[in-house]
Amino acid sequence: MKVSLFITCLSDAIYPRVGEAMVRLLARYGVKVEFPTIQTCCGQPAFNSGYWKEARTTAKTIIEAFEDCDFVIAPSGSCTGMIHHYPKLFEDDAVMLEKAVKLQSKSYEFTQFLVQVLGITDVGATFPHKVTYHPSCHGTRLLGVKDEPMELMSKVKGLEFVPLPHAEDCCGFGGTFAVKMSDISGAMVTEKVDHVKETEAEVLVGLDMACLMNIGGNLRYRNEPVRVMHLAELLYEGVKQA
Fold it and tell me: Which CATH architecture does the domain made up of 120-241 adopt?
């Protein structure tokens, strides 16, 4: 099994510990993860803004970077979801379309890969804290990632799970949306944090650092002592504590 890590921009530049947690968890199961250094942005900001020519340029780099692996895993439903848009970008280019479809078929969000490909739902973690979960829009709606994170958390010893009210409401980030419509975005994340506070959770966990960065920023602005973690971080920390 040749597995490559698609780290994504935010995890690479701001949250490298997320990638480290993924790699170290997978190493426990004998999965050696490769890291193609030519990888770059998935092209989502350009794609969503209507700059499809520029999006194709970055998409071609991603396709080249991961052409020789069996699986691509990423700590982001959003960026993995963007790969699922690649066939649309290349629908008039038969050669690139075939490559785009191939990449789409082997690209997985991290919890998808753990549960669907490796068949792992219990990593042997212990995490004695009260936890709530934000299901990011793209992972849930584009990729259908719903049961996998819940299965993984349900097997963590000591973890007290508290459902997040209106959990599937968007956090308000949405990439360029947060810049172009900042007032609406700010109102949405404020509402999201209000719901996080309702749970009285110690930890907010999710699968997408863009959403967690947005929610975490609002939590810090309001001096709320809620720890924000990617699920890969929680699982790896829990394994070390076990």
Answer: 3-Layer(aba) Sandwich (3.40)
